[in-house]
Amino acid sequence: MDSMRTKPVFGRLKNIILPFIYKNSLLRKMVYPDLKNAYLEVTNKCNLQCKMCIYSKLKQTTGYMSRKMFEACVDQLSEMGVENLYLHFGGESLIHPDFKQFLKYAIIKRDQGKIRSVSWIDNGMLFNQAMSDLVVDLKVDSIGFSIDGVGEVNDKIRIGASYPTIEQNIKYLIKKRGSAKKPEVHLSTCDYGKTEEQELDVYREWVQFVDSITLIPSILPDNTWENKSEISGKFRMRAPPAFCSFPFETMAISWDGKVTGCCLDYVFKMELGDAKKESLKKIWLGPKYQALRLAAIKNVFPNDSICRKCEFWQINFDPNHKFILENTATIDYGYIYRVIKLNKNN
Questions:
Q1: Cα separation of 167 and 173, whole Å?
Q2: Considering only CA atoms, which of 174, 205, 169 is closest in space to residue 189?
């Protein structure tokens, strides 16, 4: 008899509580976190030693993601309906000997599954003509290339790089793409080691060719903003968001299966789960991820947490749209980044 009374009462409470949770965006993020972005670190090996790279300063074992793990992760992410699948994290993806096969498999799951887009960021050194032909044929959604100056300026910051090689590889891709919409081609440059004029040189050289150029803040190994006082004193800033949204939207999986909920945790110190032993959905909805989300909302972390001093998510430029390079280009200031595009109305 008691159990019969309990069911209607529980049903009534459920009908009250769940709509309340759904209407409250913060509670909804906690109870129904929506996985939008997934990073698969196919390898953490890299062929460059960039001066500003946090990852290169951290010692750890390197390796390659197995084909079995890659396909299992992609299958699960497709079932979870991830919006954006990125085939990179700590290393240079094209070093992986099976990367082309991995890319083809991911595209199949985009075209026949629930993944919306597939892309990655590349350093451009190994992105040869055969790779360009493949990504155009597969209609990969976007490719990002990292450049930190024109000519020797780039090569002195990105140790091991050859600017002429990178330039040739990117421009071949753009020519091969022609008038097609995919892949979009983007550049990113770090706000490190360059004068303002040298940054303008990058914009001047590339804005007419690529879809956009993103200026990325330089972050130190403790996750603080390197030139905070200089930049925030020069540009108008807004108050940061209430909390870091990364744990509510994004998952990164290492080549050997470790999972993190932080975009700067290149050594996977968090270890929120192990993709070799648990399903990604179970990890995503599990207690470790939920504890991280709660800590993010409260902005209270243990002393040894990589999130404790993090300033990356707090960078918030006052939205602004300016014309540069004699009105041939525009720069948009926004959350974390500054984005430069060709002024098509000029």
A1: 10
A2: 205
